[in-house]
Amino acid sequence: MKDFLLLNDFSCGYKNSFKLSDISFSVPKGDFAGIVGPNGSGKTTLLKGITGELKLFRGAVSLNTLNLSAMSLVEKARNIAVVSQFSEVADIPVEDYVLMGRLPYRTMWQFFETQNDLNVAERYMKLTNTFHLRHKLMTQLSGGELQLVSIARALTQEPKLLLLDEPTSHLDITHQVQILNLIQQLNIELNLTVLMVIHDLNLAGEYCDHLIMMKAGKVYLKGDPHEVLDYDHIEKVYNTVVITQKNPLSGKPVIFLVSGKVLSKRKNV
Question: Which residue segments constitute the domains of the chain, with CATH numbers given?
Fold first, then answer.
């Protein structure tokens, strides 16, 4: 498969503070890739470097062979959409919030949405099952609804690449599965390339085609979930004892934690 997102000898970060270095990997078109790693390993920093929010110290990022550093803000917004960990909450109707995704397509003297803008927003609100919320205020939504609306706005940008930063971290299991099933559906039906930061290794293994495991600002390992989510790799990166097995239905890796109490008993046996 052709490389769609390509990072080559990539380095970014904060001046006189945390930096990523020697980052090189590619994501094929239509792939659903996940970024995993412990807190402080550089997952969110990596996303900010890709979007240009953080300064690039060295290397290059390209999207479909085009250098992202050379793109204007409008060009980037037409190609890349970001769903952050915490959705912005403003006292505006959901429909107005979703329509903000059409801003990159406005002409200089355009002050109102076109019929096409309205059609695009309606399409993605229906696809994310948020159309019925269109007249509610953003401040009236639950956490799960906020994430779905944020995804609807991101899709309204009609991006080629969707970046998500821990989209399920504060949600219950019902909303976690609902949102990841939706992202999986979008990935398949729209051939949308997805790169997602995610903490939950079981969700990462079940939903992602490929994983990038990070440790201390570097890429530790890249590969499919079976290659990356091996107990030995997890223990070395997370410094935590785990057991890995296969999901009997999907065949994807499943990680089991072992409590200190159980480990102590095993050592004394």
Answer: 3-230 (3.40.50.300)
